[in-house]
């Protein structure tokens, strides 16, 4: 509202406009939040189990898994992907759970 008033040539303070709007009961209309449903009791078809649920894949990168995540913006999706790569696929960063060696060094010392 303040930006619109200034654009029309009115001199006003942002806090004054906010106070007057609050006193008059005027508020911005907020967008409805997206609420994903997790209801499994639906008549929709269920995707086929293509992987046949192999919980012990024969080698690395043979199977991929995913889960439903609500990512509202592209920026947050990019940040999430970057965080995943840095956390799980950074071949240089040292991991305390692996004796403070990098994943590449750990894999070289423990083949298979």
UniProtKB/TrEMBL annotation:
One record GO biological process: DNA integration
Region annotation (Disordered) maps to: 30-56, 93-112
Domain of life according to the entry:
Bacteria
Q: Which PANTHER family match?
A: TRANSPOSASE INSF FOR INSERTION SEQUENCE IS3B-RELATED (PTHR46889), TRANSPOSASE INSO FOR INSERTION SEQUENCE ELEMENT IS911B-RELATED (PTHR46889:SF4)
Q: What is this protein called?
A: Mobile element protein
Give the organism the record lists. Fimbriiglobus ruber
**What phylogenetic lineage does the species belong to?**
Bacteria, Pseudomonadati, Planctomycetota, Planctomycetia, Gemmatales
């Amino acid at each position: 509202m303040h930006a619109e008033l200034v654009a029309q040539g009115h001199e006003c303070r942002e806090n004054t406009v906010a106070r007057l709007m609050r006193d008059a009961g005027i508020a911005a209309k907020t967008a409805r939040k997206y609420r994903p449903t997790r209801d499994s009791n639906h008549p929709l078809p269920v995707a086929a189990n293509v992987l046949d649920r192999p919980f012990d894949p024969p080698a690395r990168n043979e199977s991929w898994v995913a889960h439903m995540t609500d990512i509202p913006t592209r920026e947050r999706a990019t940040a999430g992907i970057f965080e995943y790569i840095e956390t799980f696929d950074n071949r240089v960063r040292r991991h305390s759970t692996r004796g403070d060696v990098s994943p590449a060094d750990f894999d070289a010392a423990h083949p298979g």
